[in-house]
Amino acid sequence: MQQQRMKTVVMSALVGAALLGSGIAAARDLMIVGFGGPFQDNARKHLFKGFEAATGKKVNDDVYNGEMAKIYAMVKAKDVTWDVIMVEAPELARGCEDGIFEKIDWSVVKKNKFIPNGTSTCGAGAVLWGVTLFYDSTKVKDGPDTYAKLWDLKAYPGKRSFRATPKTTLEIALLADGVPAADVYKVLGTPEGVKRAFAKLDQIKPQIVWWKSGTQPVQLVGSGEVAYAVGFTGRVVRANQDAGSAKYPLLWKTLLWSVDSWAVVKGSPNAAEGMKMIEWITDAKPLTALAEDYAVSPANAEAAANPKLREKNPGMLSPHAAEGLFIDTDFWVANGADLETKFNAWVAQ
Amino acid sequence: MSRVNLLAAALIGPLLILVVASFVVPLLVTLYTAVGDPEIRESLPRTAAAVDAWDGVGLPPEEAYAAVAAELAAAQEAQAIGALSRRLNFEQPGLRALVLKTSRAKASLAAPYKDALIALDPRWGDPELWQLIRRGAGALTPLYLLRSLDLTLTPAGDVAHAAKDDTIFVSLFQRTFEISVWVTALCVLLGYPVAWTLSTLPQRWANLAMALVLIPFWTSILVRTTAWFILLQREGPVNAFLQATRIVDAPVTMIFTRFAVYVAMVHVLLPFVILPLYSVMKGIDPVYMRAAASLGAPEWKRFLRVYLPLTMPGVAAGAVMVFMLSVGFYVTPALVGGANDQMVSYFIAFFTNDTINWGMAAALATLLLAMTAILVVAARLLVPGFRPGALKL
Hints:
By secondary structure, chain A is an alpha/beta fold. Chain A is built from 15 helices and 10 strands. Chain B starts with a helix and ends in an 11-residue tail after the last helix.
């Protein structure tokens, strides 16, 4: 009985809080949501606060892991509390088809300032991101510098960590198996190619530790839990800055990269403000200031081509894009669901 | 209705509304999501009507082709094609590409649409594709529940085993219940002596010892799990100790293993057995044990014939609580377990968050609920004295 009463009290408090919350939401500030980490800390300083100072519109920011469910639920429930979000390319394309993102208003956002492939129906390019292989050079001397070598368990013992998604992992398996970068998606588009990728992964499966959140690879390598990891370059550069040395060498030959975009959530009460904000935060000036502070590769053509930035910023992806593999958005939009099913079944076997 | 009845109803009313709104309704919505099949009917209403009228033999009439061509293009324009293409692709991989190709080809299509669509992609001339659409146009589908049991529908509509590369869920359920049963058994075995000690300690010490049980109990699961992560990692304190004492030469892999899952889950769930057991043991009159002793029963017999049966309601309450909680565990295996140690909740979260396949998420949740209910009822019927209902707090 006591418990039952407690429950009622707690529940009524929750209901009250929810009502209060929705009251506040009616006249709220602009909410921008990204993947967190050092990028967002610097983006807050240069982009979000910059926009706030320039326009007087208050901006708050929040963090998510790229899971789309929350956004779908918001749009479905018509209670949109996020306005502008950062999103990976395949999720952007999928979400655009599903109508959970507004079409970008190209009369507000200038389309011609972006790098080629930097824009789509619902998204305006934010930054290039990539993953590379890395390890702790204070623990491992002369580690593997290609994916083929990463598969050599005798020469390079220890655990390896990959992102727990078929995207990037299957490409890496094919690269390790000797498929040239240019042919990776052609091969992966066939059932034999998929089999080949999983067979290659089978060779090192017991040695793989899977990561989900972007903070994990550096933590896992830093704590010695794994010897090698494939992780976001931005986090690796930041870890080097914190260590004050090139503790984790960046192996550009192992780069896989793509573009993250800004999008406006469908039905956002701040949609018009959101478009203006996207226009402001994709401009060369604030992005140059950001890139001077933090290793980031803006999808703004002028900032990306800036030689001073390229020199100053060792983590900038644009100069290395040609060395690496571009993660094919169309391929993952078309095949993502099937490969995710297969990947999960394989991981759990 | 008398005034007293009205008053009683008014008092219960808010609670009843709360239970219905926060428990019954979400449960029914989940059950419906597991079998509901709204995508084709909502995105392609004219096509659905046309294939409904069709007798299902050979290929459908021109009407259905015209409807599908027009409606796919309209859905694409209205940003409403995602759910439909995911639904079709889920049943048969590759259909997503077909849907997108067709929806974008609107300008180049002209009557007769039957020939135009078949010319665009020969799959539109495949009777099995149309039977699939016809089945999908119904209000309900068994597909999600079947897939959750590693079964599937053949193009003709029969139930068959899924391809070996795609089977995962039967072993997932087995693993979930295996882990839960072991965690429950370990919790009872470890918690029973602790509760007994607590109930026999002098009050002062009992309060202190109780605090040692309760403080972890009040700490967030996430914090306790993370603590185990730190302790068990390769260069963590446990490995450091083992190496310093020369018990092992090289660090032992403990994190990301089933072992770590058991350790962390048992630690997190132990208070759920200790607390009900303690309350039952506190209520047992020591006179029963003395009576048994005076009748000449040795210590083991006193325990087995008198004490254990008297504490069974506590064991049952604790075990059922631990079992139900462990069946739904998510955070702990996700943090300290490896890829082979994930339980059903992990995939419910995966389908909810990552692939937005809420049909699969709901089907897995429904099956988990049903299986857990069956097991708990079976335990009540089969284990003597195992009746949490007899517990008086």
